[in-house]
Design a protein that fits this description.
By secondary structure, the chain is mostly helical. Helix content is about 75%, strand content about 0%. The model has no long low-confidence stretch (mean pLDDT about 85).
Length: about 280
C-alpha cells in the first residue's frame, strides 16, 4: 500500500504542476500559488469542521506550520531559478530534494533491501533524465544553481515534515489545513511585496474567473498529494515513499506529451523508462 499511495502522490503532484504551469502562462505565478492554496484552505477548513479535526490539535501541528513556512520559500526559489537559467538544468536539479526525506529515513534506522537500494538509484536517475537535462550550452549562473538547490532542499524538507504532522486521518486534515493557511499567509505577503514593487498581481483583463476551476484543481490536487504522501510514509519506509512520490516530473512530462503534443526527447523517454524500472524494484524489493 505504501507504493500505491506514494505513486498516487506522484500522479497528483505531476498533474498539479502541469496545471499550474499552464495557468502561469496567463496569470502571474505567485497569484496562481496564493489563489489555488487559498481555495484548498477553504475546502480543508470545511472538512476539518465536519470531521471534528480540531480535537486532534497538538504539538505535531508545529510540523505542519514548518512545512507551510518552508514550502512557499522553495516554490519562490524554484520560480526564480526557472526565470534565470535553462529549465533543462533547473528542473532535474529540483528533484534532488528527495535526498532529504531519504536521509531522514536512513538516520531513523530504515534499511532498505538491496533491490530497494537499487530501485532508489534507478528511479532518481530516471527522474533526472525525464526532466530533459541540458548537458551543453551557455554556462549556468551560480545564483541559478544555488536557488535551485535551496528549492530542492525546501521541497524535500516539506516531504519530511508533512510525514510527521499527524498520525490519524482527521489529524491529517487539520495538519494540511494549517499548512495551507501558513502557505497562503507567506505567499500573500510575498505577493503584496511584489505588487508594491510594481509587479502585476492579475492579468490586464482582471481576475480570470474562467480559470477558477483550474485553480481549484491545482490547489486540491496539491493537497491530496500531500495527504496521500503522508499516508504512504506512515504505512511503510519513508525512503521508499519519498522516492516513489518524487516521480511527479515524469507525470508532468507525460501530461505535456498527451495534452499539448510536446515531443519527448530521447533522454526523457529513457528517463521515464528508468523511473518505471526503479518503481518496480522499490515496489517488489
Amino acid at each position: 500500500m505504501t507504493a500505491f499511495f506514494a505513486l498516487a502522490s506522484s500522479l497528483l503532484w505531476g498533474l498539479a504542476d502541469f496545471g499550474g504551469g499552464l495557468l502561469a502562462r496567463r496569470i502571474p505565478a505567485l497569484t496562481v500559488v496564493v489563489v489555488s492554496q487559498a481555495i484548498a484552505a477553504v475546502v480543508l477548513g470545511v472538512t476539518v469542521v465536519a470531521t471534528g479535526g480540531w480535537s486532534e490539535a497538538g504539538p505535531r501541528l508545529w510540523f505542519a506550520v514548518a512545512a507551510g513556512l518552508v514550502g512557499p520559500v522553495g516554490l519562490i526559489c524554484f520560480y526564480k531559478a526557472l526565470a534565470l537559467g535553462p529549465m533543462g538544468v533547473v528542473s532535474p536539479l529540483g528533484t534532488l530534494g528527495v535526498a532529504v526525506p531519504v536521509g531522514v529515513g536512513l538516520f531513523l534506522g530504515e534499511r532498505p533491501g538491496p533491490a530497494q537500494f537499487a530501485g532508489i538509484g534507478v528511479a532518481v536517475l530516471g527522474v533526472v533524465l525525464a526532466g530533459g537535462p541540458q548537458l551543453r550550452g551557455a554556462p549556468v549562473q551560480r545564483r541559478t544553481i544555488l536557488l535551485t538547490l535551496v528549492a530542492a532542499f525546501g521541497f524535500g524538507t516539506v516531504f519530511a515534515l508533512i510525514a510527521e504532522a499527524s498520525t490519524t486521518v482527521t489529524g491529517l486534515f487539520l495538519a494540511l489545513f494549517v499548512q495551507r493557511v501558513v502557505n497562503v499567509a507567506v505567499g500573500g505577503a510575498v505577493l503584496y511585496a511584489s505588487v508594491r514593487k510594481g509587479a502585476p498581481a492579475l492579468p490586464a483583463g482582471g481576475f480570470p474567473w474562467a480559470s477558477f476551476p483550474a485553480l481549484a484543481f491545482v490547489g486540491l490536487a496539491d493537497v491530496a498529494a500531500n495527504g496521500t504522501y503522508a499516508v504512504a510514509a506512515g504505512l511503510g519506509p519513508v525512503t521508499v515513499a519519498a522516492v516513489l512520490a518524487s516521480l511527479y516530473p515524469v507525470v508532468t512530462a507525460l501530461a505535456a506529451r498527451g495534452f499539448l503534443s510536446e515531443r519527448l526527447r530521447a533522454v526523457q523517454a529513457a528517463g521515464a523508462g528508468l523511473a518505471l524500472v526503479g518503481t518496480l524494484l522499490l515496489a517488489t524489493g
